[in-house]
Amino acid sequence: MLRGTRQMLRVRDAKELVAMARSYAKRAGLQVVERAEVLTPRVNHGRWIADCSCGGGVACDPSMTVAVCFACHDDSDSADPVVAIAPVDWSGVDVAGVAMLLGDRPRAVRRNWESPETVADIAQESVNYGVYDAILGR
Questions:
Q1: Number of folded domains in the chain?
Q2: What backbone torsions phi and psi does residue 30 show, to the nearest 5 degrees?
Q3: pLDDT at 135 over 80
């Protein structure tokens, strides 16, 4: 199973994620910034993430169209970090195919994917890793 925002941050949906971000920002005395920059999802060690423009990795989830960088340093108007909310573009991502094939890999360190890698690429890589050796009779 691939983990996303729901599992890593224990939120049910995007509305709850944004509420969590705003609550955290208020407690920490940070500004909340809504970014127009669209994030591209990828999988790293079995986790759905996206790269924020500040260089940080942020949790994302196929069921949500936003992600949050909780300590973003990419705001030109402030020397202090901000809490950045940004949209995530899931178009063109075969979420079910990626999740199914990477889920077959026993080690999280081998559960990685990023665009433009295809489901066929993941399947071939899994064969190369020996994931299906028992099924193939090797």
A1: 2
A2: -105, 155
A3: no
Q: Which amino acid is at 84?
A: A
Q: Are 39 and 58 in contact (CB under 8 A)?
A: yes
| SS3 state of residue 106 | coil
State the pTM of this model.
0.90
Taking the C-alpha atoms of residue 80 and residue 71, their distance in angstroms, rounded to an integer, is 9
Same domain? For 79 and 111 the reply is no
Query: Contact 47/57 with Cβ under 8 angstroms?
Result: no
Tens digit of pLDDT for each residue in 35-50? 999 999 999 999 999 9
- Say how far apart CA 60 and CA 71 lie, in whole Å: 15
Which structural domain range is residue 117 located in? 95-136
Q: Are residues 77 and 130 in the same domain?
A: no
Identify whether residues 10 and 69 lie together within a single domain. Answer: yes
Residue in 71, 64, 91 with CA at minimum distance from that of residue 4: 64
